[in-house]
Amino acid sequence: ANPLKRLTRAEYTNTMRDLFGVDFDFTGLLPPDHVERGFDKFGETQLMSPHQLLAYLKTARFIAERVLPDVKPKTRTWEFDVRHFHGSKNFATGGGGDYRDGDDYVLTGFRPYRSNLHFSIDPDRHDQFVIPAFGVYRLEVKAHADKANQGEIIGINLGDGRHPTSFQLIRRIAMPRGSKGFTTELTLEAGDMLAFTFDSARVPGRSLAKKPHDGPAMRFSNVKVTGPLIEQWPTAAMKALLPRPDMKPRELVDHIALLLTQRPLSDADRRAFVEIARAKQASGASMTVVARSVLIALLTSPHFIYKSESPELTDVERAYRLSYFLWNSVPDAELLSAARSGTLAKDPSAQVERMLNDARVGRFIDDFTRQWLQLDKVDDFGPDVRVFKDVRQMTVDSMRREARELFRYLLENDLSMEHFIDSDFVMVNDRLARFYGLPAVEGDAFVPVKLPADSERGGLVAQAGFLKLTSTDFATSPIRRGAWILKNLYNEKIEPPADVLINEPDIRGTTTIREAILKHQQLESCARCHSKIDPLGFALEYYDPVGRKRTEYRHVRELPAEQEGTTFTKKLKFTTAPIDAAMTLPNGREVRDLPTLKAALMADRERIFKGIIGKLISYAHGRQISHADRPHIDAVCESIAQRDYSLRATIHAIVAHPAFGRK
After folding, report:
1. Distance between CA atoms of residues 591 and 481, nearest Å
2. Comparing C-alpha atoms, which of 199, 200, 168, 170 is closest to residue 184?
3. Are 115 and 199 in contact (CB under 8 A)?
4. Which of 1, 154, 467, 495 could form a disulfide with 145 if both were Cys (CB 3.0 to 4.6 A apart)?
5. What average pLDDT score do residues 519-529 get?
């Protein structure tokens, strides 16, 4: 069976952006997408409940009211200096801050890992600055980081909400030394209020304002907000949805339906939407209100929510599959023209190349790498700031971005997928270069840096983000690390056996994690997977929970609190133990550390390439792959061999394969 495939939340957001110019994240309005085998695009898991349908209706109303407004909003300008702001010391999240009357700067908090200081418009002045209408607003901030610790960049987060507990991150902006401020544009909602937090500054003690202090600090002098910005009226979305004020109900329905889906409605389907338009007209509603009601009805219909796919894709359906693969959104006019002329089906290479060179391909890079490599989970655990005191939040953010930037660099530069296994360079920014002990890099942007000859870095399994993702807040997990390699590089399905709770091995008497894990290999039901998982994971034990090289285990034990009811007085006790990482893979090859692991993976690279190809096909087709897809995967792998297994060539080969045109 090939079930219908629903738009994911990311696809819905991008579709609204490209159709109507609405740069707004709708993921908070729609129910979470179900994830299966790492991806949220599979039709067989995208069920529709009454709760979900209601969420689509509310979201459709939200959109329609904003793209078809009744009146033109007035553009205004607000300007504030530091005296208008109110600081909130939020020690529950591990930070604090203060400022003194007369100062033009903020003193930021004492703990480095989480956001330190929530800083918003003074509550007594909230009525002076509340976003009046949905739209795009320009934010101009005069500020600079002063005496940042160890060259650390102090970041500014922008959010909405009156209180730290309701604060929602909108954007993070790095403020390197020498910066005098920034200008950015945000899509905001009526009722929003701006707030700021400052990350990564570390100031000893909490009574910051009671003694002289000249840094680190954010010197914060002026904020100017202008909006909503109106480039033209009627807006482009209004003109697209209602090109003429005298449109008849049937004409209006056909026009909006074609705009949304690029396929005509049947007579039976059209009838219900036309009746909605006629009923609104009969009530005396304006054409804007009529068009809004039709738009809401179509946005909540299967015609829009689900992707149309015939057993053999039509030319337009092929364009939609390609566009939702590489742009996570609807096809543009050029792609649709190529589809309707038959060019896309005959030779898609020109359109694929154009799309890979378009900025919208960044959506594919972000979404695919996030799901394939679980990059959104890098920060799920810690690190415990008591154990890893010098690991800053923005360093962890950089860890999360590294794998994505490697994927982007390989795709843009037509490089081999071998770099996912091992490489003589890494993609780093200033913070990650410092964390890895590499030559200094300027700024927040990621750039390729050649590794010294004795470095073990390079490749996905040597990245701090992967090593942290597969650890807890202060302990590594060989099982998680080995399972991650099998699932994400080899694309193997790894699940606990059905009798895992019944036949759990007896680990009494074991004194090390190695001894406990090896007990699993003594049970046949466990050994099937653990014989493959454990050697891969143990080879990485020379890297700690934040991805730094170590020579021995450092076990952490929390001593009882000296005072009841507080966690601030708890002490930690550290003990050490030797690392024994050597194990044998099922093929008889020994791995004992990261270099031997990467050598073993490189020797098995064709299987890994096929695993990555399978992941890409699953994402592109919106379904799980099966044994029937093996010839397809083999054909793609064979076709890219002469291109040195280029990632870019892989994308071309997947789209060119006949299976891309079938449901």
Report:
1. 14
2. 170
3. yes
4. 154
5. 69
What whole-number distance in Å separates Cα of residue 588 and Cα of residue 528? 15
Q: Which of 21-35, 194-208, 491-505 has the lowest mean pLDDT?
A: 194-208
**Does the structure show a pLDDT above 80 at 261?**
yes
CATH architecture of 5-71+235-308: Orthogonal Bundle (1.10)
Of residues 214, 220, 203, the one with CA closest to residue 108: 203
Token pair, residue 553, equals 């285990």
357 contact partners, CB below 8 Å, separation of at least 6: none
In angstroms, the CA 33 to CA 42 distance is 10
Structure tokens at 633: 């995967």
Query: Distance between CA 612 and CA 172 in Å, rounded?
Result: 31
Alpha helix stretches (DSSP H) within 68-112: none
- Cα–Cα nearest to 458, from 422, 492, 486: 422
Collect all residues with Cβ–Cβ distance below 8 Å to 320 and sequence separation of at least 6.
262, 307, 308, 330, 331
pLDDT at 521: 66
- Among 25-39, 167-181, 288-302, 441-455, name the one with the lowest average pLDDT: 167-181
pLDDT digits (tens, 9 = 90+) for 483-510: 999 999 999 988 776 555 444 544 444 5
Q: Has residue 23 got a pLDDT over 90?
A: no
Q: For 333-344, write each residue's pLDDT tens digit.
A: 999 999 999 999
Q: Where are the domains positioned within the chain?
A: 5-71+235-308, 76-227, 375-602, 605-661
| Residue 237 vs residue 86, higher pLDDT | 237
Q: Which of 396, 405, 404 is nearest to 432 (CA)?
A: 396
CA angle at 240 for the pair 239 and 244, rounded to the nearest 5° = 55
Superfamily name with CATH number, domain 76-227: Galactose-binding domain-like (2.60.120.260)
Instruction: Let me know if the fold of 5-71+235-308 is the same as that of 76-227.
Output: no
- Residue carrying structure tokens 């890994």: 608
Q: Which range (333-337, 570-574, 641-645) has the least confidence?
A: 570-574
Q: Nearest Cα to 630, choosing from 650, 593, 659?
A: 659
Q: Could you tell me which residues come within 8 angstroms of residue 625 by beta carbon, excluding any fewer than 6 positions away? A: 491, 614, 617, 618, 633
Give the separation between CA 553 and CA 600, rounded to whole angstroms: 24
Collapse the DSSP code of 418 into the 3-class scheme (helix H, G, I; strand E, B; otherwise coil) and give the result: helix
Give the residue among 185, 181, 153 at the shortest CA–CA distance from 170.
Answer: 185
Q: Which tokens in the block code for residue 663?
A: 């449901």
CA distance 119 to 131: 17
610 burial type by CB count under 10 A (0-12 exposed, 13-18 middle, 19+ buried): middle
Chain-wide mean pLDDT for the chain? Answer: 84
**Alpha-carbon gap, residue 1 to 329, rounded angstroms:** 25
Alpha helices in 332-490 (DSSP H): 333-340, 343-346, 349-356, 361-372, 393-412, 430-436, 464-469, 478-488
- The answer to whether 624 and 392 are in contact (CB under 8 A) is no
Structure tokens at 84: 């208008």
